[in-house]
Amino acid sequence: MHINTIIFDLGAVLIDWNPNYVFDKLFNDEERKAFFFQNICTSEWNEKQDAGRSLKEATDELLVKHPGWKKEIEAYYGRWKEMLGGPIKETVEIFRQLKASGKYKLYALTNWSAETFPVALELYEFLHWFDGRVVSGEEKMRKPFPEFYKVLLDRFNVKPGEAIFIDDSLRNIQGAEAVGIKSIHFKSPQQLAKELKEMNLL
User: pLDDT at position 106, please?
Assistant: First the structure.
């Protein structure tokens, strides 16, 4: 197998993003915080923004449904920048080594709101090292749906059998493998480096 393309997910792989950085400050009750994420600002709600829904529409929807949670709902995007914990430096170093080798085309395939992604582009220089990026909010589709992976394959003329995909979500890994892209389920920078070395890619 000849690999000439490496595709990275961003959140939790190259960038530390965690809503708890904000909501640990807003809640002093773990049960109330858990209720908020399980019933109000849910992962399903957030994924609609990743798929192109506007932040205003998303926020307004919840304010109508849950008026008693106004402060917390508005904080989700009002304080979104505080949810960024910075680069995951060890993974960025792996990315730097892959880039420096000159052997691979490097792409980002990310589930990310089109409205918040420019903040990350401004903060993190390494996002500009990619040969191309595909952002779900801009495409109005997201992982793990096959058409989203195919956007990257078609746009950058990538052959699935010549690519490796790296993501922390097993669901997204399964989506990539369903369209023929061999994948690494990211658990830590050390595990990623080990697997890449075993494949003679690093």
Answer: 98
Q: Is 185 helix (H, G, I), strand (E, B) or coil?
A: strand
**pLDDT (average), residues 138-155:** 98
The identity of residue 59, as a single letter, is T
d(CA 106, CA 98): 8
Which residue in this structure is represented by tokens 């058409």? 147
Q: How many domains does the chain have?
A: 2
Q: What is the DSSP string of 111-134?
A: ---TTTHHHHHHH-GGGGSSSEEE
- Taking the model in full, what pTM does it have? 0.96
Structure tokens at 90: 């060890």
49-61 burial code (b ≥16 CB/10 A, e <16): bbbbbebeebbee
User: 151-176, pLDDT tens digit by residue?
Assistant: 999 999 999 999 999 999 999 999 99
Q: What CATH number did the domain enclosing 137 receive?
A: 3.40.50.1000
Pairing of strands 15-17, 84-87: antiparallel
Whether residues 67 and 97 share a domain: the answer is no
Do 187 and 92 reside in the same domain of the chain? Answer: yes
pLDDT at residue 103 above 80?
yes
The reply to whether omega before 144 is within 30° of 0 (cis) is yes
- Per-residue pLDDT at 135: 98
- Alpha-carbon distance of 187 to 51, in angstroms, equals 25
Instruction: Tell me the residue range of the domain where 106 lies.
Output: 5-16+85-198
